[in-house]
Write a structure and sequence with these properties.
By secondary structure, the chain is of the alpha/beta class. Helices cover 34% and strands 26% of the residues. Strands 1, 2, 3, 4, 5, 6, 7 and 8 form an 8-stranded mixed sheet that branches. Helix 7 links the parallel strand 4 and strand 5. Helix 2 runs parallel beside helix 6. The N terminus is likely disordered.
Length: 203
C-alpha cells in the first residue's frame, strides 16, 4: 500500500465517524445473519475455555461483545475516545475494560493475554513487522494472534495481502493459518470481490 493511501486513512476523523460507524453491517453487527456469521467465526478463532482477550482498534466493541458473550474477559483499546465510549456502553455490566490508546503500543503495562485480536488495523500502521513483534510479546505462552485483514478496492487498493502478512509472521510463529473470508457474504452483509481473510498465528 502506498504511503499516500495509508496517510489518507490516518487522517480520518474517527471521533466524527463514531456516530455512524455501526451502520456498516460488519461494524455494528445489527443484522442477525451478519452477527451470527461473525459469532461462528469467533468461536473457531478464540480458545474454547475462558481466556483474556486484547481487542486492538476495537472501535465500538462489536467483536469484543461477541468474545464476552463466549465467556472471555476483554480489554479493548482504540485511539478514539468516542469509539471507546460506545464500546463501554455496549458492554456495560460485562467483564470488559476499554482504554483509549494506540493499537501499535497499547497501554496495558505488564499485563499479558491469551489472545490478541485485531481487525482492519495492521495495514494502517507504517511498520507492521515491528508492531507484530510487539503484539507477540503481549501473549502468554500458548497464546494466539487473530488478525482479520484484507485488500480493499481495485483502482487504488489499500490493505495488506495475505501472503505478505504470512511472510511477516513466519519468523514469529510456528503455526500460521490463513482463512479466506471473501466468499462468505454473510460476514459483510453483501457479496464482495476483494481479498478479505483472517490469520490465526500461534508462536
Amino acid at each position: 500500500m502506498s504511503s499516500e493511501n495509508r496517510d489518507a486513512w490516518a487522517d480520518v476523523n474517527w471521533e466524527a465517524e463514531s456516530a455512524s460507524f455501526d451502520e456498516e453491517p460488519d461494524h455494528g453487527l445489527r443484522d442477525p445473519v451478519v452477527r451470527e456469521a461473525w459469532a461462528a467465526r469467533m468461536r473457531a478463532w478464540l480458545p474454547e475455555r475462558s481466556s483474556d482477550a486484547l481487542d486492538l482498534g476495537c472501535g465500538t466493541g462489536s467483536l469484543s461483545l461477541l468474545a464476552s458473550e463466549r465467556g472471555h474477559r476483554v480489554t479493548g483499546v482504540d485511539l478514539s475516545p468516542a469509539m471507546i465510549g460506545l464500546a463501554r456502553a455496549k458492554l456495560a455490566g460485562r467483564d470488559a475494560v476499554f482504554l483509549v490508546g494506540d493499537a501499535a503500543a497499547p497501554p496495558v503495562g505488564e499485563e499479558r493475554f491469551d489472545v490478541v485480536l485485531v481487525r482492519h488495523v495492521l495495514w494502517t500502521l507504517p511498520d507492521p513487522g515491528r508492531v507484530l513483534r510487539h503484539w507477540r510479546g503481549l501473549l502468554r505462552p500458548g497464546g494466539r494472534l487473530v488478525l482479520v485483514e484484507g485488500v480493499w478496492g481495485t483502482v487504488s487498493p489499500v490493505g495488506i495481502p495475505s501472503d505478505r502478512l504470512a511472510e511477516l509472521l513466519a519468523p514469529l510463529a510456528d503455526d500460521v493459518r490463513t482463512e479466506r473470508l471473501s466468499d462468505d457474504a454473510r460476514l459483510w452483509g453483501r457479496e464482495v470481490e476483494d481479498e478479505r481473510y483472517v490469520v490465526v498465528a500461534r508462536p
